């Protein structure tokens, strides 16, 4: 059984990403089969419970108030609408319901309304995840007491490239929130966004930051940038799909027990590219036609793809490794984060 490591160095990760493609995928598939059924996939559904008008300046995000994306802000959804959406997701096969709010950080009053949503979704028999931006230690404790299963807060990219994408919060701010979440006993969902103009060394550094945490994130969402009109990253060059698959494979090798999720950008991926990602160790996706504010393949499309690949969806138990999705705040929508 592959041992869990938390002592990777930059050169090791760069060497891993630079392996011949067939060797890298073979190694990732071996690790994957040690820890998971290679033909099972977990599905989650993501709902934007509060959209737009976020004060952060994330360069990928349609929900940033500073980006001219044309998105109309919406207030926090009423509880009954959230329950209805969660029930529909459950009935379509999702095992986890993720809720994202475009905040820099929630007020205590807003947090209480989210807590009511968490409790209602759990009453439906689903696992719960939220992504609300930065938290205080006390807020993380309140979410734990409410029974929250996962908190999503993506680190987005490498510490070195981070300032090129976001200036309104620091990389350390993200790590602090993740530490509060972990200390409260909530499972961590944290990954990043590829294709923002970063270098291969940045992708290595991002994986290094995740894998060298004292405990690996139970869920590692890997997002492909969705280029949204009116955002600073709209014109960035496309990332080579093979480089995306390489990053998925490295994530699987470095974090053997984590659920690695294909998140934003799947609508722009061919079936063949997704199949390679599953071969590389991805074993979770978001179900549904929307991820916060960006398009996503519908459930019927995914079901047909899984059938063609001989894959079956699986319900997550607490004895299995876990997962969740998007980004810290308004997550690009998620090219962002839940």
Q: Report the helical percentage.
A: 25-40%
Question: Shape, please?
Answer: globular
Low-confidence stretches: 317-338
Total of helices: 10
Distance between the termini: 30 Å
H/E element order: HHEHEHEHEHEEHEHEHEEEHE
Radius of gyration: 18 Å
- Secondary-structure-derived class: alpha/beta
Strand share of the residues? 15-25%
Mean pLDDT, to the nearest integer, reads 85
Number of strands: 12
Largest beta-sheet characterization: 10 strands, parallel
Task: Walk me through what this model shows.
- This protein is an alpha/beta fold and 338 residues long.
- Helix content is 36%, strand content 15%.
- The chain contains 10 helices and 12 strands.
- The strands form 2 sheets. Strands 1, 2, 3, 4, 5, 6, 7, 8, 9 and 12 form a 10-stranded parallel beta sheet that branches. It has a two-stranded antiparallel ribbon with strand order 10-11.
- The radius of gyration is 18 Å and the shape is globular.
- The two termini are 30 Å apart.
- Mean pLDDT is 85; it is low at 317-338.
How is this structure best summarized?
With 338 residues, the chain is an alpha/beta fold.
Features:
338 residues; alpha/beta; ten-stranded parallel beta sheet; 10 helices; globular; disordered C terminus
Secondary-structure blueprint of this entry?
Layout: H1 10-17, H2 21-35, E1 40-50, H3 79-91, E2 96-101, H4 108-123, E3 127-131, H5 137-145, E4 150-152, H6 171-184, E5 187-189, E6 192-194, H7 200-211, E7 219-224, H8 241-254, E8 259-262, H9 271-279, E9 284-287, E10 290-291, E11 294-295, H10 299-309, E12 312-313
Parallel strand pairs: 1-2, 1-9, 1-12, 2-3, 3-4, 4-5, 6-7, 7-8, 8-9
Antiparallel strand pairs: 10-11
Helix pairs in contact: 1-7, 2-8, 3-4, 5-6, 7-8, 8-9
């Amino acid at each position: 059984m592959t041992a869990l490591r938390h002592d990777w160095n930059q050169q090791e990760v760069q060497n891993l990403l630079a392996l011949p493609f067939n060797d890298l995928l073979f190694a990732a598939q071996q690790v994957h089969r040690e820890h998971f059924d290679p033909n099972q996939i977990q599905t989650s559904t993501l709902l934007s419970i509060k959209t737009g008008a976020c004060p952060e300046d994330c360069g990928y995000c349609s929900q940033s108030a500073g980006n001219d994306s044309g998105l109309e802000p919406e207030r926090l959804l009423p509880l009954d609408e959230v329950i209805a959406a969660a029930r529909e997701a459950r009935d379509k096969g999702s095992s986890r319901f993720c809720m994202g709010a475009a905040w820099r950080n929630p007020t205590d009053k807003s947090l209480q309304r989210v807590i009511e949503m968490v409790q209602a979704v759990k009453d439906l028999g689903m696992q719960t995840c939220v992504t609300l931006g930065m938290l205080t230690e006390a807020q993380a404790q309140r979410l734990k007491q409410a029974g929250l299963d996962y908190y999503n807060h993506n680190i987005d990219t490498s510490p070195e490239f981070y300032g090129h994408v976001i200036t309104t919060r620091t990389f350390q701010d993200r790590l602090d929130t993740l530490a509060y979440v972990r200390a409260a006993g909530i499972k961590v969902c944290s990954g990043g966004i590829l294709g923002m103009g970063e270098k291969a060394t940045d992708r290595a550094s991002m994986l290094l930051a995740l894998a060298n945490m004292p405990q690996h994130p139970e869920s590692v969402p890997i997002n492909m940038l969705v280029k949204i009109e009116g955002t600073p990253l709209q014109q960035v060059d496309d990332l080579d799909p093979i480089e995306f698959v390489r990053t998925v494979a490295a994530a699987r090798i470095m974090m053997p027990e984590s659920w690695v999720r294909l998140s934003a950008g799947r609508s722009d991926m061919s079936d063949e590219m997704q199949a390679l990602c599953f071969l590389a160790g991805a074993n979770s996706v978001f179900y549904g036609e929307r991820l916060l504010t960006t398009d996503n393949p519908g459930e019927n499309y995914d079901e047909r793809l899984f059938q063609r690949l001989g894959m079956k969806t699986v319900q997550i138990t607490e004895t299995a490794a876990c997962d969740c999705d998007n980004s810290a705040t308004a997550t690009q929508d998620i090219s962002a984060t839940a």
